[in-house]
Amino acid sequence: MAVVLGINAVFHDPAAALVVDGTVVAAAEEERFSRRKHGKVPVPFSTWEVPERAAWFCLEQAGLSVDDIDAVGYSYDADLAPATTSELTELDWEGLRSLYVRRAPRFLAASLPGLDPATVHFVPHHVAHAASAYAAAPHHSSAVMVLDGRGETGSYLAGVAIDGELEVLATVDLPHSLGLRYEELTDHLGYRRSSDEYKVMALASYGRPRHLDAFRRLIRPTGDGRFTTDPVDWASFAPPGRGDGTLDPLHADLASSVQRRLEEVLLDLARWLHDATGERVLTLAGGVALNCVANTRVQQDGPFDEVWVQPASGDAGTALGAALRVAHLLGDRVQPLSTAALGPSWSDDDLERRLIEAAVPYERPADIADAVADLLARDAVVAWFQGRSEFGPRALGHRSLLAHPGRAANTERLNDVKGREQFRPVAPMVLRERAEELFEGGPVPSPYMLFTHRVRDGWSERLPAVVHVDGTARIQTVDAGDEPLVHRMIERFERRTGLPVVVNTSLNTAGRPMVDDPQDALECFGSAPVDALALGPFLVRRGSMFAAGRR
């Protein structure tokens, strides 16, 4: 029986997670508190910040103090990193990273006074990723694949996990990396690497994979559960992009080619791993596992009966994985992850006090779900702030912007609200019991929005705002038992419109993290052209829509 704090403070996405007696109690990214997306600011080494506020939140959520911590799992092991010289410069990133990690126990003790540095356990980066998948999944055994840009010296891990024990079957060493090639493409197109890869995935749907043969030569499975990646002269395929949202056909074709090759290689790796393990379930983690199009190819065309993806699969999730791994090693029976809603929440009294302090007119309808459904049916855009915030990059009905899916203009409208590229799709939340009537080709249930589904005939015309250019949608299924408030809101919307779906996108604007506390929500509502804010049970209306007056 142990209290284990997990920490990610390497590369990007600093985060903390807390596992108590084998159960995940809390997890949060530091960006939600610092308001620096991915923990990045234009200062050297800022990506290695200690997730101090996230760690304190986790302890407070559990009602514990630093003295209660039995162990800390840190998701990087400097002993596995490349050897470096004793003389370090700003350009010697590996040496600096290793030096930072070796001193991490001191940094943590400074941020969490009273913490014993000897309680820190270094968990290899890809092992932490793997544990965040297999240990959090609702299966006692699974095949495991981890793909990202890089860990200490590698970019890939494949193995099998049975009752919490991981056997590593294959790894790939740097410089070979599927994640780094995708990051390079992101950078070449003018977007931020290790941040904007999802934009490239969306852009790929607008292109043709006309460079696929070239990338089949550059990125090759080796037949033994591994792969090689050659250096790419990106400018030979398309000129550099400006990252300004322009839909350039040359860039779309390049993105399509790389996306398609990624999917092919993942399928090859999955087939090898299935043959090697005989497992029915595949669990995925690592930044590449946030590529929902590739996940769907593996789920549809691969050999596994089920594919389970950890909802915070990027580096933030290694905080969770490190904590789960150390908890298992200390003898706890780790429990599956039951929800991604692991962040902060506020009581109704706290929310009302914030509204009063901000002098914001508000009302308290008898049923906030019904009131919001009515607004959405009348084509309002509603900011939805309910319960605990989500861990990971997806808004899952706790920190969301909602809209009517039957209005084609709402895709452009929401992208304008958020200040983002018009080629990017928005996603549908659908009642779990109706999902298979509307969508096909992907797993159901799909509560974490990590797969794409084809929109069935007859529904594309009724749901134009959530249908991507390729005829798919990245759905989130909503179960009444797991998300009763969101489920009721969609039910009430269906009564008014006949559509068991609402548009859902994250509650933030371009370049900013998702909102996390009431002040963030009020600031976002005040600065963006949003019609209403549902803050817990309270409703704030804008302009001519405001009818109730201040209480």
Give a short account of the largest sheet: 7 strands, mixed
Low-confidence stretches: 41-46, 544-551
CATH architectural designation of the largest domain = Alpha-Beta Complex
Q: Indicate the proportion of strand residues.
A: 15-25%
Helical proportion, percent range: 25-40%
Structure classification:
alpha/beta
Provide the residue-averaged pLDDT. 93
In order across it, which strands form the biggest sheet?
Answer: 19-15-20-14-13-21-22
Rg over C-alpha atoms, rounded to the nearest angstrom: 23 Å
**Count of distinct structural domains:** 3
Number of strands: 22
| CATH fold field value of the largest domain | DHBP synthase
Q: How far is it from the N-terminal to the C-terminal residue, by CA?
A: 49 Å
CATH class of the largest domain: Alpha Beta
Looking at CATH, the homologous superfamily of the largest domain is Carbamoyltransferase, C-terminal domain
The number of distinct helices, counting runs of at least 4 residues, comes to 17
What's the gist of this structure?
The chain is an alpha/beta fold.
Write the layout of secondary structure elements.
Elements: E1 3-8, E2 15-20, E3 23-29, H1 31-34, H2 52-62, E4 71-74, H3 93-102, H4 104-111, E5 120-122, H5 125-134, E6 141-147, E7 154-162, E8 165-173, H6 178-188, H7 197-204, H8 212-218, E9 219-221, E10 227-229, H9 249-277, E11 281-285, H10 292-301, E12 306-309, H11 317-329, H12 348-357, H13 368-377, E13 382-385, E14 399-403, H14 409-418, E15 427-431, H15 435-438, E16 439-440, E17 453-455, E18 472-473, E19 476-478, H16 484-497, E20 501-506, H17 518-527, E21 532-535, E22 538-541
Parallel strand pairs: 1-4, 4-5, 6-11, 11-12, 13-21, 15-19
Antiparallel strand pairs: 1-2, 2-3, 6-7, 7-8, 9-10, 13-14, 14-20, 15-20, 16-17, 17-18, 21-22
